[in-house]
Specification:
- The protein has 224 residues and is α/β, with parallel strands linked by helices.
- The chain is 38% helix and 13% strand.
- The protein has 7 helices and 6 strands; from the N terminus they run βαβααβαβαββαα.
- Strands 1, 2, 3, 4, 5 and 6 form a 6-stranded parallel sheet that branches.
- The protein is globular.
- It binds flavin mononucleotide.
- Flavin mononucleotide (FMN) binds next to helix 1.
């Protein structure tokens, strides 16, 4: 059945939606940055707008409550927060390190979780990964879901992991396998349709609670 809200953008009827597309790798020549670029291309081809972001733009010290209390937020954390808040939704392409996601990304998430309003709450997030392994870094994405969902993010059910990524791109930089390329595009366009619907046709109230009914104390406030 055709999407009633204009959905795939091919008809030119999509409402404005913007995405922060973020590669969580610091590496020059990163496979995840290449995949993130392709995601940005698909979004723009389907009438979304993209702010493309690199991990190196959000350099932050290891989270330390004392540093936050004495110095406030580091510029890298503030920059990520500002760019999150200026866009409707987030796409993360993340490497898998030791069957999880990189510690630098967890550290950035920890800093972001200290802002008020907490910027992941009710934010749509699509997770992508690329790795030389046969499962494309997919285990890292399952672990990345945990802090994001804890913070109230709407992590899209479908994920895309590019296996054997060092040989999966064609000479033009696209995904060489036609069925995989098709699945990649369909996943992103379906995600865009959801973001469009939730951004422009929202009818549900959303709230994030960590400690139901508990008054804020210095201890619970730190956990929040
Ligand atoms: C510390 C470290 C741990 C890694 N652990 C895994 C792993 O568990 N699973 C995997 O598929 N690849 C693993 N890799 C390989 C990365 O997937 C590979 O280096 C990939 O290219 C990193 O992403 P990038 O190209 O976007 O930087 C690891 C790499 C490093 C440096």
């Amino acid at each position: 059945m055709d999407n009633q809200i204009g959905g795939n953008g091919a008809s030119g009827s999509r409402e404005p939606i913007s995405f922060l597309v973020f590669s969580a790798s610091l590496r020059t020549g990163s496979l995840n940055t290449r995949l993130a670029r392709l995601a940005a291309d698909v979004i723009e081809a389907h009438e979304g707008t993209v702010d493309f972001a690199f991990m190196s733009e959000f350099d932050v010290p290891s989270f330390d409550q004392d540093v936050q209390d004495s110095e406030g937020f580091p510029p890298g954390a503030q920059a990520f927060y500002d760019r999150l808040m200026k866009t409707d939704a987030l796409v993360i392409a993340s490497p898998e390190y030791n069957a999880s996601f990189p510690g630098a990304l967890k550290n950035l998430i920890d800093w972001e979780s200290r802002f008020k309003p907490q910027p992941f709450n009710a934010r749509h997030v699509l997770l992508l990964s690329a790795s030389p392994s046969m499962v494309g870094g997919n285990r890292g994405l399952w672990s990345l879901r945990v802090p994001l969902e804890h913070l109230g993010a709407r992590v899209y059910p479908d994920m895309f992991s590019l296996a054997q990524a060092q040989q999966a791109f064609d000479t033009g930089g696209g995904i060489a396998s036609e069925p995989l390329r098709d699945r990649f595009e369909k996943t992103i366009v379906a995600y865009m349709d959801l973001v469009e619907a939730d951004t422009h046709y929202a009818c549900a109230k959303k709230a994030w609670f960590e400690y139901l009914g508990e008054p804020l104390t210095p201890e619970t406030e730190r956990e929040e």
